[in-house]
C-alpha cells in the first residue's frame, strides 16, 4: 500500500507553479526517488516539506525520508544533498503518552538503535524548514521524531562540502527558518510542549550569527500564537508568521520591532503561499504523530 502511494506521480513532487495561468509543471519526483533508492535504508517514507532557492538550485527537505535534495533547474536533475541520521538516546530519558510506548524495531533496519544492556531509542531527525544563509551555507530546521521531546531539536548548518554542524540547539519541534538581511535567522516552533501531549502554544525565536537563541514571541504569554509552521522575512524587515491562531482558521501575522504580533486579516498572493505551507506542515505533523503512535503499547 505504501509503495502504491509513493508510486503515484502527482504526490511527493516538486512543481513549478504559474500563478497567471494556474498551471503546474512537475520538475522532480521525490517520492519515486525514495521508493527506488531509500538512502537511509529504513522505512520507505516520503513527505516533501519545504524548499529554498539559491540561484539555479532548489533545495527541498523530505520530512518522511529524512533527506535534503538539490534540484538543478539548468540540468533538470535531482540529487541527494544530505541524509539526516537519527540520534540514539537512552530510552529511559524519553517520556511517552500514557498507554503508548516505543514502536517495535523493524528487522534489518539500519536506522534503529543497536541492542545494548541499556535500552536505546532512535530519535528521527525529521527535517522541515530550509534556508540559505548570507554565508552561502544551508540551514535546516529539525522537527524531531516521536515522542517529540522538548529541547532536542536543532538547526543544522551544511557547508559546500556537505559537512553538517550544529548551528543552534536546545529547541523543540522546529518547523521553519528564514534569514534577515542583518544575517540573523528566525525560526518557528510548532509548539513548546510535545505534540504527543497536546502541545499547541508556539514560539518564534531569533538566532544570532553565533547561534545564540532569543525568544521574540511566546504563545505561552500571547494568545493566538499557536501551531506555528511557516515564516518569512519581508522586504520591510518584519517577520511574517503563519499559524493556526484562535479558532479553526489559520492566521497570518507580522511581528513588529517590539515583538508584538499584529494580525493580517486578508492575505495577498504572497502571504497565501504561507497559508499553503501551513496546511502542508500541519498535515505532516499530525500524520507523523498518528503514524508513530500507531503501535502496540
Automatic annotation (TrEMBL):
Record-linked InterPro entries: 6-blade_b-propeller_TolB-like, ScyD/ScyE-like
Superkingdom: Bacteria
SUPFAM superfamilies given in the database record: YWTD domain
Protein's name in the database: SMP-30/Gluconolaconase/LRE-like region family protein
Organism in which the protein naturally occurs: Lyngbya aestuarii BL J
Organism lineage string: Bacteria, Bacillati, Cyanobacteriota, Cyanophyceae, Oscillatoriophycideae
